[in-house]
Design a protein that fits this description.
By secondary structure, the protein is of the alpha/beta class. It has helices at about 5-20, 105-115, 135-140, 180-195, 215-225, 240-245, 265-270, 280-285, 300, 305-315, 315-325, 325-345, 365-375, 380-395; strands at about 25-35, 40-50, 55-60, 70-80, 85-90, 95, 95-100, 120-125, 150, 195-200, 230-235, 250, 275, 350, 415, 430-435, 440. α4 (about 180-195) runs parallel beside α5, α6 (about 240-245) packs parallel to α7 (about 265-270) and α13 (about 365-375) crosses α14 (about 380-395). It is globular. Bound molecules: zinc ion.
Length: about 450
C-alpha cells in the first residue's frame, strides 16, 4: 500500500471521526478488500451502515450503494467485527499493585479504554468486581464512554479460605458460601444487583487451599439457571471440570491443565453444549515478557506500557527470577494448548478469553492478540480463531448484535492493514476501531 493511499484513508477516517454523531443518522458505505463477518470471509466486500447498525453486507457485486451514502474506500484493507472477550477482568491493577482496593471508575474506565484501543469492544469481567461494577456496567453499554462495553459476573462465588486466593486481595463482593443454601443466596444477591453471568471458583490452588464442595457449586449453578443466568466455572483440574459440567455448568472458564482431557470429558462438553474458554495467556503471562520477545519494542505492544511495568520488564533481577521459576507455567501452557486441540478436534464449542486485567502482566487488549495465535497453534484455522473471538464469545454472553457484521449487527468493527485469515498475527495491524458506525480516537 502506498503512502498516498494510507494518507487518503487516514484523512477519510479522521473526517468521519470529526463529524462524529452528526453523521450517525446518515448512511456510510465501507468497501474493503476482504471482510470477516463473524462467520465467513467475503472478498471485495461492502458494509452499509445506518444509525450505528449494519443494514447490508456482502460482496460489492451484490450490495447496492444507497443514494447519498458516504463512502469509505478500504480497497486494500481487511475489516472484521470488534472482538469480544468472554473472560477478562477490570479495575484490579494500579501500577504493579493488585487488588479489589484498586477498583474505581478511573481504573475500570482505563482498562475498558485500553481493551477498545486493542480492538476489543465488549468485555465480560468474570468475577472480582467491586460493588461499583453494577453502576459502571449500566453506563458502559453503548460506546459512549470511550471504551469497551462492560458486562460481567459481579463479585462471584468463591471458596472459604480458597479461590480466588487472598493474595489477589479480591474485593469484598466475592461471596464465599459454606452451604448449598448460602450458595443460592449468594447467587440471588448477584442476580438482584444485576449481572450477566454467575462466576464460580472450583480449584484447590495446587493442593494449597480448600476447594468448594460439589454440593455447594451444584447449588450455585442450579440457582444461576433458576435466575436465567449462565454459570461460568473456574477450574484447573480435569476431575473438577467433569464435576461442574455434570452439575450443569454452561462455561468452563479456563483450560484443563493438570492432565490430558479424555473422551469422557470432550463427549460431556459436546453433548451438553458447554463452552470451553482455555485462557492460555493466564500462564504464559508469567514468563513471556521476561523473555523479551522482539515485539516488546513494537508500538502495538508499547500502547499498553506504563512506567511501572516498563521498569519491571527491564529489571534484570525480576527477569531472572521469572525465568528461573517459569517451568510449571510453560508446562501449563503446553498442556492447555494440547487440550484445546483435543476439545476442538472432538467438536467442542470454543469461546475466547484470557483472564487479562487481573495482574499487571495479564495485559488488557494485548493478551487477546497473543491468545488468537495460541488458538491457531492448537489447530484452529485463523477463521475459527477469529470466530471464537467474535461471534462465539458474543453467543456465550447472549449478545446477538455483537461479534458480527451482518444485517442487524452493531457496526463495531476493526480496520486492519493485513489479513488475519492468512496470518493470525495480522490481528495486530489495527488501523482503526469503529464503534456504532463511527471511528473512535485511539
Ligand atoms: Zn478470571
Amino acid at each position: 500500500m502506498s503512502n498516498q493511499r494510507i494518507w487518503s484513508a487516514t484523512i477519510a477516517l479522521t473526517l468521519l471521526a470529526a463529524a462524529g454523531a452528526a453523521f450517525a443518522q446518515d448512511v456510510t458505505v465501507l468497501d474493503a478488500a476482504r471482510l470477516f463477518d463473524g462467520h465467513a470471509v467475503i472478498d471485495k466486500a461492502r458494509v452499509v451502515i445506518r444509525d450505528g447498525k449494519v443494514i447490508a453486507a456482502g460482496p460489492q457485486a451484490a450490495v447496492a450503494v444507497p443514494a447519498g451514502a458516504r463512502r469509505v474506500d478500504l480497497a486494500d484493507r481487511f475489516v472484521m467485527p470488534g472482538m469480544v472477550t468472554a473472560h477478562s477482568h477490570v479495575g484490579m491493577v494500579q501500577g504493579l499493585d493488585v487488588g479489589g482496593h484498586n477498583y474505581s471508575r478511573q481504573t475500570v474506565g482505563r482498562d475498558l479504554a485500553q481493551f477498545q484501543r486493542y480492538g476489543v469492544v465488549a468485555v465480560n469481567a468474570l468475577g472480582m468486581n467491586a460493588e461499583l461494577f453494577h453502576t459502571l456496567r449500566r453506563e458502559w453499554r453503548d460506546g459512549a464512554h470511550g471504551g469497551a462495553d462492560l458486562y460481567g459476573a459481579g463479585g462471584g462465588v468463591g471458596a472459604v479460605d480458597g479461590a480466588p486466593p487472598a493474595r489477589m486481595k479480591p474485593p469484598g463482593s466475592v461471596m464465599r458460601p459454606t452451604t448449598p443454601q448460602d450458595a443460592r443466596k449468594a447467587v440471588d444477591a448477584m442476580a438482584d444487583a444485576g449481572v450477566d453471568m454467575i462466576k464460580v471458583w472450583v480449584d484447590d490452588l495446587n493442593g494449597q487451599a480448600p476447594k468448594m464442595p460439589p454440593e455447594v457449586y451444584a447449588a450455585a449453578i442450579d440457582q444461576a439457571h433458576r435466575r436465567g443466568l449462565k454459570a461460568a466455572v473456574h477450574i484447573h483440574a480435569l476431575a473438577d471440570a467433569k464435576g461442574v459440567v455434570r452439575a450443569g455448568a454452561d462455561v468452563i472458564g479456563h483450560g484443563v491443565r493438570d492432565m490430558p482431557v479424555d473422551d469422557e470429558f470432550t463427549t460431556l462438553l459436546r453433548e451438553r453444549g458447554v463452552w470451553y474458554i482455555p485462557t492460555v495467556n493466564i500462564n504464559e503471562a508469567e514468563y513471556i515478557y521476561a523473555e523479551h520477545p522482539q515485539w516488546l519494542k513494537d508500538p502495538f505492544f508499547r500502547m499498553a506500557m506504563t512506567p511501572a511495568l516498563e521498569a519491571q520488564l527491564n529489571d534484570a533481577q525480576w527477569r531472572k527470577t521469572a525465568l528461573d521459576k517459569a517451568q510449571p507455567s510453560r508446562a501449563a501452557v503446553s498442556m492447555n494448548i494440547d487440550n484445546l486441540r483435543r476439545v476442538h478436534a472432538a467438536g467442542g464449542k470454543i469461546a475466547f478469553g484470557t483472564d487479562s486485567g487481573v495482574t499487571p502482566l495479564r495485559i488488557p487488549g494485548f493478551a487477546e492478540h497473543l491468545e488468537l495465535a495460541h488458538f491457531v497453534q492448537a489447530g484452529l484455522t485463523p477463521v475459527e480463531a477469529l470466530t471464537a473471538a467474535t461471534a462465539s464469545s458474543a453467543a456465550v454472553m447472549g449478545l446477538k448484535d455483537r461479534g458480527c457484521l451482518q444485517v442487524g449487527c452493531r457496526a463495531d468493527l476493526l480496520v486492519l492493514g493485513a489479513d488475519p485469515t492468512l496470518d493470525i498475527t495480522a490481528s495486530r495491524s489495527i488501523e482503526a476501531v469503529w464503534r456504532n458506525g463511527v471511528p473512535v480516537a485511539r
